[in-house]
Amino acid sequence: MMKRRVVITGMGAITPTGLNVKDFFRALVEGRHGFARISRFDATDYKCHMAAEVKGFDARDYMDAKAARRMEPFSQYAVAASKEALEDAGIVMEKEDPYRIGCAIGSGIGSLQAMEREYDKLANKGPARINPLFVPLMISNMAAGNVSIQYGLKGKSINVVTACATGTHSIGEAFRSIQYGDADVMIAGGTEGAVTPIGIGGFCALTALSSVEDPDRCSLPFDKNRSGFVMGEGAGVLTLEELGHAQKRGAHIYGEILGYGCTSDAYHITSPAEDGMGAANAMLFAIKDGGIDPLDITYINAHGTGTHHNDLFETRAIKKAFGEHAARIHVNSTKSMIGHLLGAAGAVELIACVKQMEAGVIHKTAGYQTPDEEMDLDYCKEPYQEEIPYALSNSLGFGGHNASILIGQYKE
Fold first, then answer.
1. Quick check: 103 and 347 in contact, CB under 8 A?
2. Which residues on neighbouring strands pair with residue 330, listed in sequence order?
3. How far is the C-alpha of 210 from the C-alpha of 227, rounded, in Å?
4. pLDDT digits over 269-279, tens only?
5. Helix and strand counts by DSSP (H, E) for the chain
6. What would the pLDDT profile of 66-86 be if each residue is shown by its tens digit?
7. 412: pLDDT confidence band, cut at 50, 70 and 90?
8. Inter-axis angle of helices 308-322 and 277-290, to 10 degrees?
9. Distance between CA atoms of 192 and 232, rounded to whole angstroms?
């Protein structure tokens, strides 16, 4: 069966540095971060006091108050980002077959807020006081469910859960769904809202979070002084569309998804494989799927969390995949400015790739100053102004999940 071409016709973002794609991208270009002391709860007794929280968000700007009350933050963010992505694409549902428009929006965790709140009721007031809607508020598939309900999307609706690779896998599976005819349009991405006491406490216990108090130095991907990641939150959603469907509508095309690769390290529940072969093969599979040569790659948006293991092993993966050519590839980390959005990370970072490709600019890895041993790639200490024919976006998730998406400039 001939695979159908898939293009990107819309994007939406709720991030720590902007509540839409325009503001988010402006902050990236300007090198502005979204880090500050945690305000969602009193974090005095925690080892980590910094987060990249979404600021100024009001769900009622995107949906009616009743709908907002029946959604937790991760679902609200997804609905808001999807609204922007659909409007940006110019999709008018009344003119479409709703059974040909699907949704693939994942969340790595779902609602920790609901778990905390309802467990407190259970412990202190008994089981009779648990909210009847607790389960549908909490479970991670409700981001996709709520987006489908809000916008009348009656096609395939799925929720991929692969921890920090969730957003990238969701987009990849949506890409495949259109390629092979399961849908003509897919609203795809990831969402997360896990800046909560148990969320921060759990990652602190895992020693994964940075304990640095300086907001300008707390998230340092690829830097020798990196000390862990900073928790972020938000959502990224893209409108993916079969090329002919987009052309028939006269839609604006931002770029084309060319390839999707995924592997498992089969190694450790939190650490990537030390030799980088899992992530290397995910990149190579995406490149092969896209029908280009590895030497065509000049830019990679890395997973780049700022933890010791991730940055070192991802560097090894890039070297394994590209050999000597790796030294000529620009590698940056969007997490240097928005933190780690967990299940939303890959989707927001793919939006960053699309916008950089459109503008001919590669944003810097904010805060990067001091090279580390063995890590000798170009990590974008400063921004670049140059054409980006292709971009590769990487995501690596706990459990050994590796995913890479290859996009390219649209060519007829």
1. no
2. 299, 378
3. 5
4. 999 999 999 99
5. 13, 14
6. 999 999 999 999 999 999 999
7. confident
8. 50
9. 8
**String of b and e for 146-165 (b: at least 16 CB within 10 Å)?**
bbbebbebebbbbbbbbbbb
Q: Where are the beta strands (DSSP E) in 133-265?
A: 157-158, 185-192, 234-242, 255-264
d(CA 189, CA 79): 11
pLDDT tens digits, 173-206: 999 999 999 999 999 999 999 999 999 999 999 9
| Helix/strand/coil for 19 | coil
In whole angstroms, what is the distance from residue 121 CA to residue 118 CA? 5
Instruction: Name the burial class of residue 31, with classes exposed (0-12), middle (13-18) and buried (19+) by CB atoms within 10 angstroms of its CB.
Output: middle
Residue 14: how many CA atoms within 13 Å on its side-chain side? 30
Distance CA(326)–CA(345), nearest Å, equals 23
- Contact at 8 Å (CB) between 59 and 41? no
Q: What is the pLDDT of residues 51-64, one digit of tens each?
A: 999 999 999 999 99
pLDDT of residue 332: 98
- State pLDDT tens for residues 328-346: 999 999 999 999 999 999 9
Angle between helix 166-179 and helix 345-359 axes, rounded to 10 deg: 70
Tell me the pLDDT band of 1, cut-offs 50, 70 and 90: low
CA nearest neighbour of 208 among 307, 97, 293: 307
pTM for the complete prediction?
Answer: 0.98
- One-letter identity of residue 131: N
First to last CA, the chain: 21
Comparing CA positions, the residue from 154, 190, 197 lying closest to residue 172 is: 190
Distance of alpha carbon 156 from alpha carbon 183, whole angstroms: 7
Residues designated as active site: 164, 303, 340
Among candidates 86, 11, 107, 23, which has minimal Cα distance to 57? 23
